[in-house]
Amino acid sequence: MQFVPYNAFQKVMRLWDEVHPYNAAQIMKLEGEADYEKINTHWRKTLSTLGIGRIVMDGARYAHTAWNGEGGHRFINVTQPACGLEEYLTTEINRPFLGPEYCPFRPFVIQDSGAHFVGVIYHHWPADSGSIKTLLREWFRSMYDPAKCRAAPLIVPEKGYWHYFGPGRAKWSVFEGFLALLRHRVRFCRVRQTPISDADDFTVRISLHPQPDGMAEKLHAAARGIGCTVNDLFLAAMAEACHEHGACPLTRERDELALGTIVDLRLLAEQNMDHLFGMFLGFTNTIVRRQDLEDWPRLLKRIASQTAFQKRTRASQASILRMGGGLLEAHFLPARKWINLYR
To answer: Residue 317: how many CB atoms within 10 A of its CB?
Structure first.
């Protein structure tokens, strides 16, 4: 069993877990009736082939090894919930993963009208969405296209962010990274805050809103036509919704709105990382002024300008500096006060 150290984002996520479970989900929608035995058999087979399925923690290190389900470990079986998808996701996203040894995946299958959902609720700190998409892809291939299945186990990386996305590898400036950190510190003094109280339990609710076929293509074409990205459209829509519906109340001293974006760093790596099973996410912040929020074209232009600058300066890769700063502050604050600081 090979133990590897937690990387920076994993340490941050484990701190968040002290306040509320930090879970996520990935789901496939497949046509027809669900064949539970087939789905369950190939789930176990996929875990065995990829060499994942059990987390073992040892201080500041962890190991991720295969678990074949023997010895009464029934929770690696695929669950068949009696409730609908939305209710199930809401329950499971809020349910913690516990134990010094445990399976960080809760696979499930839910029958729908003429189709079925096959997916995984997962503890987020061991794996980013790219890793979980690999897991689901191999699960699907094992059931329907075995000739394309991966034959070798996935590798849990021993090296962290600095090795894969540090300034030498990702071509960003440490000096500029520290300047950006200081700029955000100053700018956040005017950013609206999310009000919370000691009674808040941070419970998450999932609400699903299916869109018609072709929506993604239309959004992409619309964004391209006005010189921005789909992500810019989403950020502008989020900012407008928060402003209009009071998600972050406006005050005299704080009239600017900040939005955080999680970035999949695997897509920005200079080498292929498909064989690595782990956590490699960065983040950026986009800040808009009150006057921007009251003019849609201006809002979209302001956001597009910021996100373009973030890409040029490798801001998501350089976010390792801000993670390090946050971890340093966390040593001097109890978990709930640290969460308040993030809010």
So the answer is: 23
Quick one: which of 164, 99, 163, 155 has its CA closest to 127?
A: 155
Q: For helices 230-245 and 215-225, give the axis angle rounded to 10 degrees.
A: 90
Amino acid 227 reads: G
Residue 173: helix, strand or coil by DSSP?
A: coil
Number of residues that make up the chain: 343
The continuous run of DSSP H or E covering 240 comes out as: helix 230-245
Question: Burial code of 284-300, b = ≥16 C-beta within 10 A, e = fewer?
Answer: bbbbbeeebbeeeeebb
Model confidence pLDDT, tens digit, residues 162-192: 999 999 999 999 998 888 888 888 888 899 8
The torsion defined by the Cα of 87, 88, 91 and 94, in degrees rounded to 10, comes to -120
Half-sphere exposure of 240 (CA within 13 A, CB side): 15
Q: Residue 30: what residue type?
A: L
**Is residue 327 helix, strand or coil?**
helix
Smallest Cα–Cα separation from 96: which of 206, 25, 21, 24?
21
d(CA 226, CA 301): 9
Tokens representing residue 163 in the block: 């090795």
Q: How far apart are CA 128 and CA 10, in angstroms?
A: 10
Lowest mean pLDDT among 226-240, 257-271, 325-339: 325-339
The DSSP string of 24-85 is EEEEEEEES---HHHHHHHHHHHHHHHT-EEEEEETTEEEEEE--S-TT-GGGSPB--SS-H
Whether the Cβ atoms of residue 340 and residue 181 lie closer than 8 Å to each other: no
pTM here is 0.91
